[in-house]
Amino acid sequence: MRFRSSLFLALTALTATTALAAPADDAAIRNVEAAQESAWNAHDAHAYAQLFAADAVLINAFGWQTNGSADIERKLGDAFSYLFAKSRMQIEDVSIRPVSDDLALAYVTWSMTGAKSLDGSGGDVTPHGIQTQLLRRSEGRWLILSYQNTSRGAPEHALPRVAPPVRKCLLGNREGKCIIQK
């Protein structure tokens, strides 16, 4: 019985310290997300990368991994020159879940217009997605440490074209139905 009450007190204490973000932290994290939208819409890869820790890991909606804010800036700069040259992002919702005094999870839903598909066609695609971010407070500033971006309902034109396999009928019945296919 003593173990249960100790466990209950420990869980209660943990929940109490991580259940709600301090208003200042909540506002600061929401400012990071607003800055993400602003930097994206200005096509400013440098400003966007400054939202990330130097050792951040970013996995984009295509599943490509980028390590470190310098690499994020370089790759996003390349993407802004073509794939996202006319894109506009809108942050739709931000949900914050504190993990500790200096770590928080943010779930960020977004939509976008003006992006090209990977093959360069289909301008003005409107993808939607959700980012799962782990943010760390360092020297009084919240930075994105880990970022996973997932598309919600990838548009058909963004998916690779795969032709269905050609099947040959090796044996048919009297009604003309195929019994054995290759």
How would you sum up this structure, described in words?
This protein has helices at residues 2-18, 23-41, 45-49, 69-80, and strands spanning 52-59, 65-67, 88-100, 103-113, 128-138, 141-151, 169-172, 178-181. With 182 residues, the protein is α+β, with helices and mostly antiparallel strands. The chain has a single domain (19-181), classed as Nuclear Transport Factor 2, Chain: A. The relative contact order is 0.14. Mean pLDDT is 83; it is low at 3-19.
Which helices and strands occur, and which strands form pairs?
Blueprint: H1 2-18, H2 23-41, H3 45-49, E1 52-59, E2 65-67, H4 69-80, E3 88-100, E4 103-113, E5 128-138, E6 141-151, E7 169-172, E8 178-181
Parallel strand pairs: 1-6
Antiparallel strand pairs: 1-2, 3-4, 4-5, 5-6, 7-8
